Every structure is written in structure tokens, then in C-alpha cells.
Amino acid sequence: MRFVPTALVAATLVAAIVVLPAQASHAQVTTTPGLSPSLTTGGGAAPSGPDAGSSLVSSGLLNGLSQLSIGDISRFVGANSTAVTDLLAAPPAAANVAVWWDRLDDVRQSALVQAAPQLVGNLEGVPFIVRDRANRTLLGQSIREAQEAADSGTTSPNGDPKQVLEMLRSVSSALEGEPKQPKRSLLALDTVYPGRAAVVVGDLSTADYVSVLVPGMYFSVKDQLVDWTATAQTLYTAERAWQDYFRGGARSERPDEGIATVAWIGYHTPELGTVGSERQAMEGARFLEQALSGIRSARPGHEPYVSVLGHSYGSTAALITLRSGQVSVDALALMGTPGSETTQSVKDLDVANGNVWVGGALLDPVVGTGFFGTDPGSAAFGARSFDVEGGEDPLSNTVLDGSFGHNEYFKQNSRSLRNLALIALGRGELAAETPSFTSIGPVRLGGITR
């Protein structure tokens, strides 16, 4: 039997009358006879565009949920899981969600985390620390449910219980870092097999530099999230080493200060039979756009330097994302990229100052193909090339390995990893192909000339 909320709140849920305007200062609380309190625009424009209707419905659902009793929240979510899924598929703008969340008191926030962890954990605009707590709650609940289903031989709405359990245990393993490594948090979690997830290395709430790693084909939460998170850790370590270098060797007292890397498997990546189409890249672009918007809107007036590092098919998803006109980043690095038919040049992308970089390793069969359109490595595209060959680092004077084939761009102690870290720190000028110390000039930071 489906749970039916009180008629008063049901009117808010169904009518979806709430508009949370971006101009929060113009919003005011009003009371309509027969309806629960709702926000109306005080001169602000309602959302527009192709998703405006869905956004209004989502906003109405959010406000309606926040006005249910504590017990009714849990019952409504349990009986209307599709409504939560639909809301996350077409959510309100992250800035509007932030306004909604800030208006809730501590008791109501805690109740929503416990009763609707899937919603709170994956809703852009909710504080990152709260999303981590909600997603960990969802993870624990889902593991218990999958284990019970596997033990009893019953079916699960999330898929085959054994596969779901293996997938969720991979998420748990990805969250376990070494004692001296920075903390990890669960930014996103979809428990329906094959799932989606994003694990953060570092503190996304305070980081000055945020790097989002977007993978290509054959990447699944069950089989690759642990390794992809290890890759994010490797990049974090490289960025941290360069950050210390530019500080003149001074190491921060906080191990996670300034940097966060995101192991993002936020879409269902293609397999051999589907990699010839951009369809899944378009799906990935939709989710990536939402994730980047959430990062961008989390700290108004103090946004981090955001870079996207896309590998293989993931670079295609990144290109589509930044071609949409809905979100921008500070740097984009493409590795082993097949391009995208939607993007003909750097000028098509919302990347600050055209800060787009392309790396192509020797014997990488994808490099130079332009499989989906213009080759991003071509001169006509307008991106800059970063060096992936081995040799001596002109700054540290250490010998770095070269990258070969399609899967060595994040290889430890490689020039490619070194240059990706520099690009992510806004030091792309030091990553150009065949750099020389004399052409770069001395770097003076922290009182030390290098």
C-alpha cells in the first residue's frame, strides 16, 4: 500500500509550486490558503529552458519533503522511490538547492540525511560534508539489504544481489586510504547496478585546486573504482609535491590543505559494442555538468580552480560537457582522446583563457584518429600539447619515465603525471612539450628562486 502524505503537504508535492530563485535575496515566504508555506519569487524570474518544468517540479518536491513530519519523510521516500530518482535526474540548480538546505534547521537536516540519504547524498548544492555522511549512510543500508537478499536468495530492486554487493564493497574499499593519506569522502553514489560513484581525495570544501578525473570505456564501479581512486591519490600526491615545491619546500601542517582530486565514475562507460557511439558520452556529460556546477556553486565568491582530466572516451564526455554553455572550468586536459563531433576547436569550449591541453603517447592507437570528429591534437583545434615523453625534469632535475600506449598517462614518476599535476595547479606553462629551463625562466615563490 502506497503511503499518502497529508492533504496539506500533498498539495505542495503534487502542485510543485515552489520556485527557488537564484536571486535568493528576492525570495520571500508566503502562505496560501489550503497549502503549506511556499517560496515565491519577489521579482525574480522563474527558471527557463528545456528543463525548467522539471526543475520546478523538483523544487516543489524538495520543499514538500522538508515540511513532512520526521516519520512521514521516511515513509514517503520508501513508498515513492521513483520520485526521488526523477528529482535527481532533473534537479533544481545547485545554488537553489543550497538556499533550500540553508533554510532547514539542524533537526530537519539530520532527519533528511537519515530518511532520504540517496536524495541528500546526490543533490548538488548540499554541503559536501553532509553528502558524504548521507552517502555513507546509504552505502551501509544498501550493503545490509544486498547481503540479506543474497543470503535469502531473493531479488533486489538494485539488480543481482551478489553483483550489487560486490559493487558496494568496492565503494567501501575505495574509501579506505592509508593512515597518512588525506581523508576520502563519498561525493556521489547510485546503488542500482552497475552503479555510479565519485570518491574525493582531500577536502572538497576547502580545496583551492580541484581536479576531476573522467574515465573511458570499461570503467565500472565494481571493477575499477578502487583503482581509479588510487589514481586520484597518485595525482593528489604529485600535486601536493609540486605545491610544496612552489612554497620553497615548506610543507603545510594540514595534509589535505589546498588540493582535492575526484575519482569520478559518474556515468555508465561504454563497452566494445557501444564505444562507437557518443550516446553514453552524452549521458556522462549531463552528469558531469551537474557535478561541476555543484563544485562551482559550493563557495560563492571563493570558487576553487577547477580542472577536468578526461581520458579516452571520458575526454569525449568532457568535451560535450564544456560545449554545452552551462558550466565552465579553469583547465581541461585530454589524454588519448578520440575527440567529439560537437567540438571543432578550443573556441567552442567554456574553458578559461582557452586553457586546453592534449597529451598523446607513443603507440596509443586512439591518438590522432579524430574518431568522433576533429582531432583535439591537431593544430586546427587550437589546444596546447603537454609532454608525455621520458627525460630529465628541468625543474627538479629528476629523471622521469615516458608514457606508452593508451593507459600510462597517470603512471607514477612519469612526465605525463608531472605535467597533469602542473596543469591542475594552474602551472600549465611548465607542462608544454619539450620545455626548457631557460625558456621558462626562474620561478620565485616563498622567497626562493628556482
Automatic annotation (TrEMBL):
Database matches in InterPro entries: AB_hydrolase_fold, DUF1023
Residue ranges occupied by any DUF1023 domain in the UniProt entry: 195-366
Pfam hit, one: Abhydrolase_8
Signal peptide range in chain numbering: 1-27
Record flagged with keyword tRNA-binding: no
Keywords attached to this entry: Hydrolase, Signal
MF terms in GO: hydrolase activity
Region (Disordered): 30-52
Comp. bias regions, Low complexity: 30-40
Protein name stated in the entry: Alpha/beta hydrolase family protein
Organism: Compostimonas suwonensis
